[in-house]
Amino acid sequence: MFNWLFARHHGGKFLLRIEDTDKARSTKEAIDAILDGMNWLGLNWDGHEYYQSQFWARHAEVAHRLLERGAAYRCYMTQVELAEQRETAQRERRPFRINSPWRDVTAEQGDKPFVIRLKAPREGETVIDDRVQGRVTVQNVELDDFVLLRSDGTPTYMLAVVVDDHDMGVTHVIRGDDHLNNAFRQLVIINAMGWPEPVYAHVPLIHGQDGAKLSKRHGALGVDSYRDELGFLPEAIGNYLLRLGWGHGDDEIISREQAIEWFDLDHVGKSPSRFDFKKLENLNGHYIREADDGRLSDLVAAKLGISGTQKEQLRRAMPELKSRANTIGQLTESAAFLFSTRPLDVDEQASALLTPESREVLRAAHAKLQALADWEIASLEAAVREVAEGLGVKLGKLAQPLRAALTGRTTSPGIFDVLALLGRDESLARIADQMEPIE
Fold first, then answer.
1. Domain count, the chain
2. Segment among 23-27, 87-91, 146-150, 272-276 with least mean pLDDT
3. Annotated binding site for ATP: which residue ranges?
4. Domain co-membership, 391 together with 425
5. Which residues of the sequence carry a binding annotation for ATP (predicted)?
6. pLDDT in tens, 231-241
């Protein structure tokens, strides 16, 4: 999102590259989920999407060029030798870094399998002026001779991402700060090839409310889960993620147009933000109340499996329904009573309201409502209030069992709206169902 906003703010290009060097994880389903999620969030990319695997020949070419320049070497170490070095490092309680005996050997070793490793500098330091983290320095002795090209000739991510960024003309890389260490390693390749360095901006990761690394229990789900299972709108997700790591004064509700106009790297926070699910839900409620009734009706109708006249009934009810919902799921649940079949499945809380006394109240309300000449909200309200006064009870004492009889639940839109939305025949029939205990 930050890359997209930065590119749009500056009139640049936002490129999408599927980094599929790991074939086991890069399934069609995984790739489709990325494209679907990006499109749903409105993060449109310029041109077609790129696939890293299409450029493996180019990656291998650069690896061999580094070899020719003395910036890389053929390493013939076996897995057993690597394991021995790793065990020694663990025993000596020091970080494991490859110490290859082939680092300074230029002669080829016949048909023996080998990998191509980067010859990382061992003296001096590397400095990055990061647009978020500031000036960061690493001693080159901390860098490792990582693999560029595997023994089967395929490139590693560390090589491929650098080559692709250069060839695609990438000028700015905005990514999670878990990649900051990778930037120092990737700069070795960039400098060895004599390529221009990109501008880096490493953004802090998102944490849970407890300050721990974000996980599924905190809400770290796929984008499709927020849409399909939890019922969030894309504009709410976008607004929330934007404010989670970036700010513009005290503004909380920020449109996409405003975000493009205002976005800069100077106001990206340096500390990890905490994911507050309740805050996201409340923000989503704001966007639901702002959303077009037809759009919301389409989303809810798909979940309820309704169409035609029922969908039109839902659209008429939407102004009242959406005022009480924070998610599409809540909206769907609150709308379900409109299309329930009789006799209603009354939940436990609503059933507790249908006492013998309240059934008598329902009988009085039924008689009064049945006699109404028109079924409009004003007439319905006047009739219900008149019944309450005649029985000497507060309106709530009548509204509660009436709501239970009409919806099977204890929460719903206003009782007069419910009566109007259900219509005369359905309302009277549902009330009549609850006037006598069901055997």
1. 3
2. 23-27
3. 216
4. yes
5. 216
6. 999 999 999 99
